[in-house]
Amino acid sequence: MNQLTKNLISAALLLTSSTVFASIPLGGVRKSTDGKYDLYGCMQSNDYYIANFAAFQTPVGKAIDPKKMPPPECVTLPALGQTQIAVDLLDKDVRHKEVSMKISGDKGEVLLETPPTMAKQGVITGTVDFKTKGAYTVVLTITDNDLHTPTEISALRIPITVAMDIVEPASKSAMLSFFGFMAALAIALAVLLPRFLKPKATA
User: Fold this and answer.
1) Which of 73, 126, 152, 158 could be disulfide-bonded to 55 (CB atoms 3.0-4.6 Å)?
2) What single-letter DSSP state applies at residue 95?
3) H or E element at residue 153
4) Is 78 within 8 Å of 112 (Cβ atoms)?
């Protein structure tokens, strides 16, 4: 049984047994990577760790109110501005190890870097102000002496996008247009063809 399988089993047990350590109650309004809301939410993993990612965005010009948090977004953030990032570490043993979080842009600019700290409640958070739309990466680095793997390899990397319009592939759009045209043509023929085929009344 490899490490990822063990992590998935641990996550399943956590989801079904207790949510006391989660930053957001698991279940209910948890947006997944496909934009839907389900029990598991925005699960992110690699061969070593598994976590649940959430991003809370507020309208531009408004401060984040911890008592009135907006619904969490997954890895596709719809807007710019102040965003609170929360990551639930689902591996219980990680909660006894130092974890740091870094958020950087696709050009290498660092927007946020937290010092290594022990996330005893299983949650690491940070607030970042996204001013430019584009692709970003959230990197969780765990000081794990039991793993015997360089942190550059074991770090959990979560790619996210901010304020980027989702454009359907041209092939998909063309296919939808084709089927729409064929459906309209079929309806038109079903309505008009019987009229042309109907025999004319003789005097």
Assistant:
1) 73
2) G
3) helix 151-154
4) no
Q: Domains (ranges, CATH) in the chain?
A: 3-162 (2.60.40.1930)
Residue 40 has, within 13 A of its CA and on its CB side, a CA count of: 13
User: Parallel, antiparallel, or unpaired: how do β-strands 156-162 and 76-77 relate?
Assistant: parallel
Radius of gyration of the chain (CA): 24
Contacts of 108 (CB under 8 A, 6+ apart): none
In this structure, are residues 50 and 11 in contact, taking their beta carbons and an 8 Å threshold? yes
Q: pLDDT tier at 195 (50, 70, 90 boundaries)? A: low
Q: Are 77 and 163 in contact (CB under 8 A)?
A: yes
- Name every residue whose Cβ is closer than 8 Å to that of residue 144 and which is 6 or more positions away in sequence: 48, 94, 97, 151, 154
Residue 96 is given by DSSP the state G
Residue 6, pLDDT above cutoff 80: no
The predicted model gives 91-102 an average pLDDT of 92
Output the DSSP codes for 8-21: HHHHHHHHHH--TT
Q: What is the pTM of this model?
A: 0.64
Helix (H, G, I), strand (E, B) or coil at 129: strand
Q: Cα 3–157–160 angle (5° rounding)?
A: 135
